Amino acid sequence: MRFLKRTLKSVIYNLLLVFILLTAMAVFLTTTTPGLYLVFKIAGYFLPGDLHVEKLEGRLIDHFSLARLYYHDEKLSLNLKNLSLTWQSKSLRHHQILFKNLSVEQLQVDGEKTKFALPRWPFNISIENVSVIDAQIIQGNSTHKIKNLKLKADLTNRQWQIRQLNFDFNAVHVTGELIGQPVIPYALTAQFQFRNRLLSEPKISANLNIGGDFFLYHWRGEIKSPGSLVLNGTLKEGSELHTQVQWALDKIPPHPILSHKGRGKKINSLPQRAREKITSPLVGEVDARSAAGEGKSRTFYEGQMKIDGNLPNLSINLNSKIPSPLHSILKLKAQTFAHGVRAEGEMTLPEGQLQFNANYDATITPHLKGKLNGEMAALRESTLTIKALKFAAQFSGNSLTDLQLNSHLTAQYLNNAFADGNLHASLSSQDLNLKGTLTLDNNKKLNIAFKLPQFTLLTGLSATQALQGDVRLDVHSLEFLQSISTEIAHPQGHLQASLNVTGTVKNPIIEGKLTLHDGKVSIPHWGIDLHSINLDLQSRNKRWQAHGILSSNAQTLNLKGQGAFSPRVTGSIHVDGDNFPLINIPEYVINVSPKLLVEFNPDSLIVKGNVVVPQAKIKLQSFTNSESLSDDVVFEGHQRIINPLHINSDIHLEMGNDVSIDVKGLKGLLAGSIHLHQLPDEPLNATGELTIRNGKYQAYGQDLTIEQGQLFFTGPRISDPGVRIRAVRQINNSSMSFANTAQLFDFNNTNLQASNLGDKTTVGIEMTGRLNSPKLELFSNPSIFSQADILSMLLLGRPASQASKSGGQLLLAAISSMNLDTGTKGTQLMEQLKHALGVDINVESTPKYDEATNQVTDRTSVVVGKSLSKRLYVSYNFGLAQTDSNVVTLTYLLNKFFSLQVNSSITGSGIDLLYTHRKE
Length: 920
Description:
Blueprint: H1 2-31, H2 33-46, E1 50-54, E2 57-59, E3 63-72, E4 76-88, E5 96-111, E6 124-139, E7 142-155, E8 160-169, E9 172-180, E10 188-196, E11 205-213, E12 216-225, E13 228-236, E14 240-249, H3 272-279, E15 284-294, E16 299-310, E17 314-322, E18 328-337, E19 340-349, E20 352-361, E21 368-376, E22 386-399, E23 402-413, E24 416-417, E25 420-427, E26 431-441, E27 444-453, E28 468-475, H4 481-484, E29 489-503, E30 508-523, E31 528-540, E32 543-552, E33 555-564, E34 570-577, E35 580-584, E36 588-601, E37 604-619, E38 626-628, E39 647-663, E40 666-678, E41 685-699, E42 702-715, E43 722-732, E44 760-770, E45 773-781, H5 787-796, H6 805-817, H7 824-837, E46 840-850, E47 855-867, E48 872-879, E49 887-893, E50 898-905, E51 908-915
Parallel strand pairs: 5-6, 15-17, 37-39
Antiparallel strand pairs: 1-3, 2-3, 3-4, 4-5, 6-7, 7-8, 8-9, 9-10, 10-11, 11-12, 12-13, 13-14, 14-16, 15-16, 17-18, 18-19, 19-20, 20-21, 21-22, 22-23, 23-24, 23-25, 25-26, 26-27, 27-28, 28-29, 29-30, 30-31, 31-32, 32-33, 33-34, 34-36, 35-36, 36-37, 38-47, 39-40, 40-41, 41-42, 42-43, 43-44, ...
């Protein structure tokens, strides 16, 4: 008995000691920070993965915080930053856990996709406040980001009640409440509201209400802005689905309001009858129709979609009109089954048509296969260089993160068929790769290589998406330029263009290079051949630099420029050369030494600098009597464009030492300078003076020396400058005798009086006015000669009295070609000639307008006539131009009012009856 008492006493003492130790250990673990460290350390030994914590503070019994918690095993990775937890441990006495406050700054969960199953709680959970600033959930290749999560809830194994649920998903803020049963019949009542998170985004206002149980769920949703959308539907016994959507939206929101992704799942907790209904074959049909209308001031989308059937077998028919961004009509037919979906459709656009089909089957590899076929429509009045575009593509893969695409295209480029074209695309979990080759013809090839790291179809092309791309164009022949411009001939050279893209979608970094090697081209209308053309253009950081050189006749022209691409295309180009051939044709041979600066932007073109003409030969081959209409003539229905390129020019043009001119018998060297200036909306103006050195003027076989020659430029009439030319002829008088008579053309020797004028006599002609309409005036030194004698001495070297018959005809031609005015000297010449010859002489000019060339042609002729009797008059009209006809006219006076006129020439004959009435 005593032994039994001692044994019992020892056991009680030991149990008391163990109790004290366990109590002390429990107090240490729950009420001290070192105990908190020990709890996490012990938990790390029992968990299947690795557990690490940093900067633990507080105690387990009521409140603790940590800077970082990281857990990783084969199926789950958990990363927490700045966690703070406050809870009531005494609530465990009531089989409940009460979380007063749980806040996490950053949460990242990366786990495998698992079959859906409702959780079973060991305790009832009451949450007064949960706050997660940034949460990221990764399942396979899918990533879901949620921000600013706030939650208040009571969770038991009989009922879930979420009193408050707030979070931001993309640009949409979601708020909601939910009451549900995690057991049969899974009753559910929920309300959700959606609105914009950012004020800068288009306004969104929407709500969704869900109610019912497993045997009949029903829902109703509505979007009030932008536009309107109404959603109604029911789901009976987990299989029979009926839903309808109607909408009229101003535009599609930039971010999705709701998204759902899922696949077939088994619910093991349902009764056998329910499981049979869900796994049995399902038949259904989806009918979706959409139309796009256009309001008075904006384009909007209208449509209706209906879904009816038994999961998972569905038939889908979709017809939709899409007004923007591409006006098109979309037709789609699809069938779903337990392991996949089959779909085919077409999209019709004004520019062409796209056809596609796809098949997804999870039981075969690859799961996804499909084809794309597209064709460009034959557009009326199309100016595109690429026409008849057709392409065919095949794609395959196991998911939206594992795709392969191969395509082939054909087209016509400048009415020539493409030699070859193909594109290969590869999508993986790491990136999207695009590689392609387009062979326009044997001399033109385009290579494309593009890469989007970390791109997925689920997230799309975001602003932060990284870019890596290269585009290269090789052109080995430039003959195609002849079809663009008929002014050039025989273009040759090797052209290379490359483009490199890095950075992001929002901030791309584009670098480009364009080079032309060993270029050659001829400009037949200018008579020059350019060779050794080498150009190099480089762009970086939205700026460009260029330099180039081209040669002709052993002379070079240098180009150097720089500018910017953003915010507008601007730049400047320096042009520098020495004695460079500008034009080389029989009528013009001009070399220039430019030092020009060309500045440009989208609104203007500025050219300024100096141009020296060191060498030029201007020798016009032929002329006619045609004249262009003056600048002030305006044709009805035609708007005259003064400066189509909006050029602003300021150029100093200077003549060199070897600039010769040979125009209309005028020969000499030009000297001087001209200032050319032009404003964007005004014609080109010129100011300055050009002089003629060592000039000669040849007329009717005689060489006249130019004592004074000047061209004056004072405004926009550049092609018709003012002139002042004085041409003289020195005549040796040693063996010459003159008749000092008042008669101009007196060929009668009895009227001559001998005069001694010294050794030499100077006679000349002076031209003033405008180049296209000059005024001529005769003079002599000494000024004792009549106008007839001066003209005769200029042309024949002797007075009019000593002129032969052929000389007289030459004088007549000279008078008709002179621009005689109606003053005293012009009339005096004609009257003196009539008196000397005893016949009627007159000069007639008949203008004729040509509508095709907008030119007026003057036909000048000399008319010589004689009255044979009082009633009969004969005249002879001979033209001065080779194309003019000579006409003999016989006029017979019948009475005071009527006369009969007969005309005859080598081109025809005719007779006219004329009526003449003169007022007294």
